[in-house]
Amino acid sequence: MDLTTLMASLPELITGAMCVLFRLVSIFVIGIPFGYHTAVPMRVKVFLMLHISTVMVAALGFPSVDVGNAGPIGWLVVLAPEILLGLSMGFIVRLVLWTAEGLGTLVAMSVGLAFAQSVDPGTGIQSTAVGKIANMMAILLMLSLNTHLEVIGALFGSFHRYPPGQVPNFTHSTLEIANLGGVFIAESLRLAAPVVACGLVIYLVLAVISRVAPQMNLFAIGFPMLIMGGLTAFGLSLPDIAAVWVSDFSTMGERLVVFIVSGRVT
Fold it and tell me: What does the pLDDT look like over 246-257, one tens digit per residue?
């Protein structure tokens, strides 16, 4: 390719590279901890996104996308589907991490620690102390299982199914993504069930004590019993919780591949 031909095709090459970058950034800012967690410096995030997108552009053979003379409207038509596809894939990944947050919130409510809420500096979301611990555990487990690499691999595979500039038709999958959110909410409820049951038993014991010995100060003995019993039940159920998260993270790459190929969410 001579210099004249290269200069003539430069706008199409830039558009193709922008499509790759926007799809990558969209999945990073919502689904991968390196992209949305504030503990990672912004310059590191920018370097990672630019580096990975450059490698993908080179691996894809420098794809070119022609927007014609449409101007900003053409750029919007081309880049908007890339952003939506990346956000959809990232949302599927983030649902598992939100399961951990929901689990921690339910545990905190069950043991009487729901009032201990603050803004998480890592995510910018107000959550309980137990929720922060559960969320960090899920993030560390995700990174230890190399799920983030599987997500990036699934993203690269999406360019073979839907090349840059090609609009995927996933209108029928929006309801399935919403249903998947319901599945993970139910999963957080199941994981928190032992702690909720333990808290209920302790409340029943305290109710009986209040009837048998009304002179006892339930606030002095009930609150420590509730916290100690609930956190003990939470600690004993951690191996089963970790097993469920390992299963979810291990199948994340397959779930994204199915979503890319068929638009179905499993």
Answer: 988 888 888 888
